[in-house]
Amino acid sequence: MWFPAGSDRRRLEALVRDRNAAQKHAWRAEIILLSADGVGTNEIMRRTGKPRVDDRRVISGIVHVLKSGGRWIDALPEYGPSKTLYNRFVLQAEKLFFPPS
Question: pLDDT tens, 26-52?
């Protein structure tokens, strides 16, 4: 694995601080710097990723969509993003119907 040293590291640090840089470039530079510092994957996700939507809200949203018969996209925003509701539903359904052997 490549680790930034010297001028490369300074350029990446400047990119992270630059408010005019494209967000995805600053985000990737920050991940590279954290990896080089020996920070673990979970900690990197905690520092750079979006916070996880509360599981209770998501479960309530899944139950609401299933009971109402509506579309995922029409779920109330209080339950979290509709894509999150759908993805967690699919994940739990796979675990329920196709348990690991």
Answer: 888 988 899 888 888 888 888 887 778
Question: And the tokens for 21?
Answer: 């840089």
Burial call 16-29: b when 16+ CB within 10 Å, e when fewer: beeeeeeeeebeeb
Question: Does residue 13 contact residue 30 with C-beta atoms inside 8 Å?
Answer: no
Q: Two tokens at 96?
A: 């329920």
The residue among 46, 74, 43, 79 whose CA lies nearest residue 62 is: 79
Using one digit for the tens of pLDDT, what is the confidence trace for 61-79? 999 999 999 999 999 999 9
Please tell me the pTM assigned to this model: 0.57
Q: How many Cα atoms within 13 Å fall on the side-chain side of residue 75?
A: 23
Between CA 98 and CA 3 the distance in angstroms is 40
